[in-house]
């Protein structure tokens, strides 16, 4: 089955830029979605179809996808951005098509 | 506003079954796929499967085939996920999540989620 690889943790100072990567074989040929999950809460969609932002998500959140790596970029990081972030793709050829990455804990220093 | 409200915490013994409900409101229930995702304590998200609420068609992740059944009752706009032969590793929070329209692609992202249902399997 398709595997998505994320770094377990990323640390960033307030006001700086955080980059969270999601690696997968030729992931650039797939659509990537990103979810934010705070402790004790359900996930929230923050980026979909690689680069689109749902209404209500700040412009500070952006996404990219090319080759074997997709990325979620959070500019001007705030304390409230501290959360777990998960990437997701759909692999129709797999017997487990709805694939999530292992998640990245974003720590705001 | 769109809401998905799930049933409450469950405690089950190994070998038992559990049925989690997900009540949808403020949108066309039969117009959107419903997916189920689980999260073991301290672990990541795991996709389990989807149901087309209009047709009742389902698609389960291979590891759950034969043990998970997803159903719906359109009269009360509620989706269900039933898991049988529970083991301790099934201890997790189970989420329902709205996918894309049934007339579009199934790989549309999940824009609304239930609050989660904790299922604990313990002897």
Q: What do you see in this structure?
A:
The complex is a heterodimer of chains A (109) and B (123). Chain A has 109 residues and is mainly β. Chain A contains no helices and nine strands. Chain A has strands at 9-12, 18-23, 33-37, 44-47, 61-66, 69-74, 83-90, 98-100, 104-108. In chain A, the strands form two sheets. In chain A, strands 1, 3, 4, 7, 8 and 9 form a six-stranded mixed beta sheet that branches. A three-stranded antiparallel beta sheet of chain A has the order 2-6-5, with no helix packed on it. The radius of gyration of chain A is 13 Å and the shape is globular. Chain B has 123 residues and is mainly beta. In chain B, 0% of the residues lie in helices and 50% in strands. Chain B is built from no helices and eleven strands. In chain B, the strands form two sheets. In chain B, strands 2, 4, 5, 6, 9, 10 and 11 form a seven-stranded mixed beta sheet that branches. Chain B starts with a strand and ends with a strand. The A-B interface holds A 31, 33, 35, 37, 42-45, 48-49, 54, 86, 88-90, 92, 95-103 and B 35, 37, 44-47, 49-50, 59, 61-63, 95, 97, 106-107, 109-111, 113-116.
